[in-house]
Amino acid sequence: MPVKDRYHDAVKHAFIKDGWTINDEQFSLTVDQRNLWIDLQVSKAEPSIVILVEVKELAEVDSAIEALANALGKIDLYRLALANASLSLPLYLAVSKESYAGILSEKIGQLAIESAQIPLIVFDPEQEEILKWIP
Q1: Triad 58, 64, 69: Cα angle to 5°
Q2: For residues 110 and 71, is the Cβ–Cβ distance under 8 A?
Q3: What's the pTM?
């Protein structure tokens, strides 16, 4: 299993505070002999919803562009693996409020997210709260 992202636990706690159940940490997908790991599978009973969440920090990194490119690549690979497994679970990218106000508020970040049609969850890592859902 891969190492947890920096804010993995903060996002997990934010979902729990918001009434979600953590079904799986490091949700596993296998394509042939290659394993992929999505950070969280969470669910809510009312209404019945199950989603997958990939946590990525795009601020406080050496290169926000490299971090964004890495996140986009992972989301693409996960979507391919989900389709290969015939799973139609929605996949969200969870980013800190700093990431959202940083690279994702810039033109390149907006173009990337819009083009790839990636739904976002913006969270506050200190308060461990979900601030915004962007479909």
Answers
A1: 85
A2: no
A3: 0.95
Q: From first to last of its 135 residues, what are the pLDDT tens digits of the chain?
A: 678 888 999 999 999 999 999 999 999 999 999 999 999 999 998 778 999 999 999 998 899 999 999 999 999 999 999 999 999 999 999 999 999 999 999 999 999 999 999 999 999 999 999 999 999
CA 96/CA 10 separation, integer angstroms: 10
Which value, to the nearest 10 degrees, does the dihedral of the CA atoms of residues 22, 23, 26, 30 take?
-160
Paired tokens of 116: 């790839």
Which residue blocks in the chain are alpha helix, DSSP H? 8-17, 64-84, 97-101, 107-116
Nearest CA to 110 out of 73, 74, 68 is that of 68
Helices and strands (H and E) in the chain: how many:
4, 6
Which CATH number does the domain 8-56+74-134 belong to among 1.20.120.140, 3.40.50.720, 3.40.1350.10, 3.60.15.10? 3.40.1350.10
Cα dihedral 47, 51, 57, 59 sign:
negative
